[in-house]
Design a protein that fits this description.
It comes from Macrosiphum euphorbiae. With about 210 residues, the protein is an all-alpha fold. The protein is built from 10 helices and no strands. The protein is flat.
Amino acid sequence: MFFGFLIPSITELIYKYEQLFIKNQLKICLPLVEVIIKSIEKRFEKILSDQFLTIAAISHPYFKTVWIKNQVKKDLAISDFKNTVLDMFNANRNESTTDKPVVDNSEDEAEDSSFFSWSNVTIDKLQETSTISVENEVCQYLNRSPTKKLTSLNEYPNVKKVFIKHNTPLPSSGPIERVFSVSNAILTKRRGKMEDKTFFVIFCNFFKI
């Protein structure tokens, strides 16, 4: 289960309740349905407007933007997604350039720049070209039909990096709660004087770390 499942699941749940309310399939329980819809929207208000979770959903190839019913919200989400992919691309490019050895070509550049008219704009054009290629990648990704195959992200390297960043956090506290329960089982009242090293060894053996 990825982080990207969260908002689409909530919005789909609200949508299904709204369909029950609109189609008037229920007569006695209609007020209950209305209360449920309002309760879900109030309970998950911050989550539904969270940009990180929205990007996580869009970067998942199974959801993309099909779960966004409102066109205005969809346009805003696409804009945020494009900016996120561009920021990721620029950050990775800056890291790669800082890792490369710096070669001093100041004398050559000084001689060339005094003669060639395009020398000052070459870097800017390269940056513009890179930006356009990233935007094209995002457009191609969004225009394709949703798929459950995560391997499709291999065709979109920059989108894949955004997916990894936004979908790898654990969506539940289950694993953390399991750690606490195991810790309580190890550190009992009779083991109150247990040293940290001993506790760590037992803990690692339990989880086979």
